[in-house]
Amino acid sequence: MTDEERLEKRRAANRASYLRNRDKRLAKHREWREANPARMQELNAKWYKDNKGRAVEAKRAWTKAHPDYHRTWRLLKMGCPPEQYQRLYTEQSGVCAICGEKCDVYDRLCLDHCHETGRIRGLVCIRCNHGIGCFKDDTSVLKKAIKYLQNAA
Questions:
Q1: CA 142/CA 135 separation, integer angstroms
Q2: What is the mean pLDDT of the chain?
Q3: For residue 97, what are the contacts with CB-CB under 8 A and spacing of at least 6?
Q4: pLDDT digits over 96-130, tens only?
């Protein structure tokens, strides 16, 4: 048997051993990572520093392959599954609940919700969403703004 054949036989045995004990090894690694968060942070930071270009390219590729991930994550964080967003979008005919116009910025409507209760109010364009935010969702301030605009005309 040549050295190369012995090496290939050893590799095959190692592969088989790994596959037999894969779950145990992964569980052991997971436990170690959870028990040593500071060390993991150091190792991750070192790896990122040594492989920054590779990490950036991997992130770009992943983001390109999963274009709706962050939007879906934000919707779920606010308690709105994508199906509910789509239903609201259909009910509102794809227009803003406040100004009634199609959203021309980012081609998406924002999920408007009460910051105190978390209740979803509807979908608004980014301009109306910013407006509501600037008025801090306070109807008395909005009424004063309406009065100001009417008197200034």
A1: 7
A2: 93
A3: 112, 121, 122, 123, 124, 128
A4: 999 999 887 667 899 999 888 889 999 999 999 99
Maximal CA-CA distance, the chain: 98
Mean pLDDT of 68-84: 91
Q: 40 near 47, Cβ under 8 Å?
A: no
Per-residue confidence (pLDDT) for residue 122, from 0 to 100: 95
CA gap 70, 149 in Å, rounded: 38
What is the rounded CA–CA span in Å between residue 39 and residue 41? 5
CA neighbor of 92 nearest in space, from 77, 103, 82, 78 = 103
Helix boundaries (H) for 36-138 = 37-50, 52-65, 69-77, 82-91, 126-134
Is the separation of the CB atoms in 110 and 123 below 8 Å? yes
Cβ contacts of 140 within 8 Å, gap of 6 or more: none
CB 93 within 8 A of CB 132: no
CB 97 within 8 A of CB 122: yes
CA distance linking residue 53 with residue 67, whole number of Å: 21
